[in-house]
Design a protein that fits this description.
Blueprint lengths: L2 E5 L6 E2 L15 E4 L1 H7 L2 H5 L30 E3 L1 H7 L3 E6 L9 H14 L4 E5 L3 H13 L2 E7 L4 H10 L2 E5 L3 H15 L2 E2 L8 H5 L1 H9 L7 E5 L4 H15 L9 E7 L4 H7 L26 H10 L3 E5 L1 H15 L5 H16 L7 E6 L26
Parallel strand pairs: 5-13, 6-7, 6-9, 7-8, 10-11, 10-13, 11-12
Antiparallel strand pairs: 1-2, 1-3, 4-5
Helix pairs in contact: 4-5, 5-6, 9-10, 13-14
Length: about 400
């Protein structure tokens, strides 16, 4: 509708958005650009408030031209919950959780899938391939099934069982690799070259990020178009963080939000923290992280293709990157459930652990409005929870 072109953030090369494109010739991901002057003239906050409660309410800032190509399951407008009890325990007055666990397919990956698959359908894609740590594969498999697009998914053999089951039940071609997502990516890249499939790898097509950016659009709307002070995001490939920054920048350009953007925090695991290491060195890109391993499987990404975009967003907002230990992540997961009734995924729990760490360091002010992103439903990760209750016999009594 209002898409003007695709643009390379590294070399500024411009591409026709009505043709299928993957990476720029310089190797950088491409970003969708809009005619924001026209968007600002056409789109009003009051109109958005009256639209359906899904991410397609921000239609003018999304790249699909014909509504008939939209492949949707009602994703978007996930709850923004104030963590009252946990906030009191930590001495924080404005602690919030945006819960992506209630979205279709149980993770924020549905956002990227609905826009990515819709745009692939519009561009005439018949077959695509992608590597994944789990949830993205499950989401894209199901959305591709709905769109009638053939999908080939490759994930590490240690990926959580539930996303593997989502791929299987969707009837896509699923393969497991004895390695990490980087190894799965190498296999997909070879197949893409050999069979001319559409490469739906993270940031190798421009549209997944457009779905992910709607988290930022929603946060702005849910706060009455007043931005929070800090947003913490679990960062593997980093598409969500890049997308949130893109969304808030676009909102500022059309005049819907004012003031400073929130400080963006990239949260990683101490067992796989290439972005954190790069940020500590004030580098523009990260280095490959050897022997990556963490219980937060979704952020086990040794080297992200869009690492420079993640770091740009962190630097531009005066944010930071922080790594947390697995023990702290699992403790935070249990605390969120037992105190707030929020059963989050380990990636989301890592953000809670990061909040406690940054609060102790004085980087966070207790009175700041702080949002942590929970990117998935905790029940998709049963292996992170110990459950060994006593077995009673009929007639036994419960102890007080």
């Amino acid at each position: 509708m209002f898409t003007s072109h695709l643009e390379c953030p590294k070399c500024s090369a411009s591409y026709d958005s009505e043709q299928p494109h993957q990476l720029c010739v310089c190797g950088s991901p491409l970003l969708v650009r809009y005619d924001l002057e026209r968007v600002g003239a056409r789109m009003r906050k009051e109109q958005v408030a009256c639209r359906s409660p899904d991410l397609w309410r921000y239609r003018e800032l999304l790249p699909v031209i014909d509504d008939r190509n939209i492949v949707t399951m009602g994703e978007g407008m996930t709850p923004l919950l104030k963590l009252e009890r946990l906030g009191r325990q930590l001495g924080m007055t404005q602690l919030y959780l945006k819960d992506e666990g209630v979205i279709p397919t149980g993770s924020f990956k549905a956002r990227g899938a609905t826009v990515g698959v819709s745009r692939a359908k519009e561009l005439g894609v018949k077959t695509l391939a992608m590597p994944t740590n789990g949830n993205a594969g499950g989401a894209w498999a199901l959305y591709c099934a709905k769109a009638g697009i053939r999908a080939h998914i490759v994930m590490p053999k240690d990926a959580p069982v539930i996303p593997r089951s989502e791929c299987a039940i969707a009837g896509v071609s699923l393969s497991l690799v004895n390695g990490l997502i980087s190894d799965a990516g190498t296999i997909v890249a070879q197949a893409v070259r050999e069979y001319q499939w559409y490469d739906a790898s993270t940031l190798k097509e421009p549209y997944r990020i457009e779905g992910k950016k709607t988290m930022g659009l929603e946060l702005a709307e849910q706060f009455g178009w007043e931005l929070p002070d800090v947003i913490l995001y679990p960062t593997g490939g980093g598409v969500g963080l890049i997308g949130i920054y893109k969304a808030l920048t676009e909102l500022k350009q059309i005049g819907w939000v004012q003031g400073e953007l929130p400080r963006l925090v990239a949260v990683q695991a101490s067992g796989c923290a290439p972005i954190v290491r790069a940020w500590e060195a004030q580098a523009r890109e990260s280095e490959f992280w050897e022997n990556a391993r963490t219980c937060a499987f979704g952020i086990t990404v040794p080297k992200a293709i869009g690492d420079f975009l993640v770091l740009d967003a962190v630097y531009a907002t005066q944010g930071c990157a922080v790594a947390v230990d697995d023990d702290d992540t699992l403790a935070a997961e249990a605390r969120l459930a037992s105190v707030e009734g929020a059963f989050v995924c380990p990636e989301g729990a890592a953000c809670m652990a990061a909040i406690e760490k940054l609060l102790a360091q004085g980087w966070l002010n207790p009175d700041e409005r702080v949002v942590l992103l929970n990117t998935g439903c905790g029940i998709k990760y049963p292996e992170t929870v110990r459950c060994d209750p006593p077995v009673l016999e009929p007639g036994d009594r419960l102890l007080a």
